[in-house]
Amino acid sequence: MGIFSILLFLAGLVLLIVGIINALQVIFFVGIVMLCAGLLFFIFAGFRTVRPTQKGIIERFGKYMRTRDAGLSWIIPMIEKMYRVNITEQMVDIPPQMVITKDKLNASVDAVVYYRIKDVKASIYNVDDHRAQLTSLARTTLRAVIGNMTLTDANENRASINEKVETVLDKETASYGVEVLRCEIQKIEPPSDVQASMNNVVKAEQEKIAARDYATATETKADGEKRAEIKKAEGVKQGLILSAEGKAEGIKIVANAEADRIKIVNEAADKYFIGNAQALRKLETVETALKENVKFILDSDKVATIITDAAGVSPIPMEKKTQDISSEPKDQRSR
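Above: the chain sequence. Below: its structure as tokens.
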């Protein structure tokens, strides 16, 4: 468009001169119109738009002139040129590479690096291609960092590797205006045979832990059952003790009540039956013996005496009817 506007401008200028020289008004006016149109095309051809995610570098005949921020800018067509540079966060993928670890194992490692352009001028004039430069530098840094670690340490300390690589890259890329935001390792994979051996080791370790946990659980269960049996036995023991104490307390209370009853009875007998307390006790003994059907083997001649003595009364004398065999009639004896 710049060339077309210049040609149009030159053509209008020629017609304008021809119209002036030859006093041709039509050619003169046509020349003016073409001259104005060419000038307008030339002006509009110099407008450039810079987006908020970009910055513009303006060169004049290959020489840096200025840096333009987001917005509308104007350059001289065909004399100045604008290069737009993305200043947002960008990602570069580090392709997989084989790295020899400290324990002499080969591991396939790849990562991603996130960065952004901090100095637009330096990113263009201080390095040929900052993306290619960053990719190569990240590959060599990964080899250097992981090469000083064993495979196990590398897998366990990925955060440390990320931090070291990010620090090195940020320092080395500062000269060409690139700020490294973070580095993330995607995978660290050993050869298949080494991976199989590592899986077997991990499996054996997990089985060992599972067996230990099972033994601990069994021991805990046995200890719990033991404690439960002990608590149960202690509960039975405590129950028997409490039952025995309750029975003893009951017997004690009954005995105290019986003693109080006897005391009250004796006091009443001494008070109202002076001199007859012993006789009252004998009557109670006889009553109890007869109630419980106590049997005694005694001489028949002494039964009355014992009963009357126990009852505290005097026996009524009774005449014993004896019949002399000799005084019976002879006729009765003969019968």
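The chain has ten helices and eight strands.
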